[in-house]
Amino acid sequence: MPSIPNKPCSHVGCSNLNCTLHIRHSDKSYNRYRGTSHSRGYDNEWKKLRLSVLRQEPLCKMCLDEQRVTPATEVHHIIPIRTDPTKRLDRSNLMSLCKPCHSRITATSLDKALSSLQR
Question: Which residues contact 91 (CB under 8 A, 6 or more apart)?
């Protein structure tokens, strides 16, 4: 029977392979802490605005800045909702991104937030 291939942990600073300490998304306590998408501000009003933004800006903003044409699939809050909830539905606070760019920008902002806490 084949064994599970070794995979490095995606948690910042963890060098374990096949780490079980940082499995968050399937962890019920993490999901309870995080709350539902609706409780985090992603309600029907957000869904309508998101579709509107993707129709107006169907291409990824970051890719366009780098001379690449990539369909946008996600809408990013430039100033996070947790930082300023009043900007949740502010059109000027939103930008269309592809999944890889959104993941990269989200991870970068999370890294910055974590490093500022460690100072």
Answer: 49, 53
